[in-house]
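Session log. Operator J.P. requested a structure for one protein chain; no other inputs attached. Running the standard single-chain path with token output.
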Amino acid sequence: MNLSRKWLEEFVHVDASDKEFAEAMTLSGSKVELTHDLGEEISNVVVGKVLSMERHPDSDHMWICQVDAGREQPVQIVTGAWNVHVGDLVPVALHKSTLPGGKKIEKGKLRGVPSNGMMCSFQELGLSHGCVPYACENGILFLPAGTPVGEDIKNVLGLDDWVSDFEITSNRPDCLSVIGLARETAATFDRPFSVKTPEVKGVGDDINKYMSVEVKDTDLCPRYTARIVKNIKIEPSPAWMRERLHACGVRPINNIVDITNYVMLEYGQPMHAFDYKCLSDGRIVVRRARNGESIQTLDGVDHDLSDKMLAICDNDKPVAVAGVMGGANSEIMDDTKTVVFESANFHGATVRITAKALGMRTEASGRFEKGLDPRMTLDAVNRACELVEQLGAGEVIDGIIDVDNSDPNHKRLPFEPDKMNALLGLELPAEEQQKLLEKLDFKIENNEVVVPFFRTDINRMCDVAEEVARMYGYDKIPTTLYAGEMVQGEFTPAQQAERAAALVCREAGFDESMSHSFISPKFYDMIGWDEDDPRRISTTILNPLGEDFSVMRTTVLPSMLDNLEATLEAMEVGPLLGLWLQSFLIHITMLALNIIIFVIVYGRMIEIYRASRSAACNPQAVRGHFGNPALASR
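Structure written below.
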């Protein structure tokens, strides 16, 4: 999850440097993988205004331009760009400037004429066309009128921002959002945190005249919220929205699509927009897909659905795969006039299984599969409509369709300060523990911990203790030894018998064979077992190291023979005797070994059993019986 420091400032103000910010957030449990300056590779690039242009004397396509770059004197730049005109405001890379990709710009001569810099395209500045939709695809980037001449281009294009890349664990889906990370930041630095409630003015009318929503499978869709916007104007998003999306790694497309992506990043709630005219009878039905149904998703790929998948449908057909991706048959187009904003909550496991089956894991599915808070849907859809009004992208119809079957009750756990202190090795008073928890929106009521809705990962006392520990500071927890009574260990009679039998065999001159429990299926052929022999039925390893370790053996014989063969080869006996002689000797040796072990071990185990019965009354009897103090101590 990429977090823009500029965007973060909207919710919480932090004075820490980017290094201090990353270290503090990591220590409090939100690991920062890396931080980087968006404009780190750009230096000495400013806004320039073209003052004059004249033909290059030795070229039919190059121009000699005088550019005002905010310096005492105009800068002469020779360019071959076809789209430059006098009065244009353009990015100018001056002498000894740098551009993304390690490109360095220095003054020089082009066909004998001095050139003290270069005018830049958006590609040369590391931008996509979505970031600057007014730019030419193959030409110099023009900047909006009124852009200050001489201004650092990073400030103009929103590249003066630091981005922190967080590694969000699967149990913290609430941190897959700017608001979630802002909440963690406020708790870490003990700063005020505020989120404004979205305000939508509306233009009247009633949403119920336009559409209806039916949720047939409430277990897979606990909440479905929708609003309608009419008189849509599809156009590029404003610069501030494009810059924030770009900083978080999302490519800007148009205002409606950008709004849904913006809300997903801000609230962590995936959204979708349907073209209203594509919904049969203005009806949405949330149900399991039927076997044989298919849909072409927004990426242009056709998918066959099954009854294990949840689909968003109209009266006739699926129009989206719930929690994964919308359908091409309801896509927002340039001629779209009315849209339906969907903000819903779907069952995480179902979304994960569906995404895997269809082979299309998306930003939305990656969030839904971790389990989201159903209460986010309403704020998210209202925030989207608020942005529509703010951008002048359409008119919001009054009313909200909200089918809510989620549990309205907070999760409650016993507040056990003493147990948490014992677990953490701390001695924090209950009042201090309460203050630490309240920084994270937990509440203590009637000696119970009231878990906030967005913390779906808090289920036990140890989870609450972890929240106390990370807010207190892992680095402040003292190092202590484990407390507890030391207990003298001992072997059971069965273990003693086994170890004694092994010792007797080794002292009698036998070698002990140790090998892996995993073998190759070919080993059964080597010991002469038939193909239909039931003893060949083995457990197959799903991720074996190789074919030689692909099944669990049902007999130790092939492993012992393999060890013996390796031993003989190491002694250079194998090549001399030949394979047939080796096999003969191995079988004779194994037969003799089995007979000897049976006779010796059986007699020895009888003796050990008799000794172990008397050990309870006289422990020295065992030691005296074996005549070996080391063995008896076992």
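Operator note: The two ends are 56 Å apart (CA to CA).
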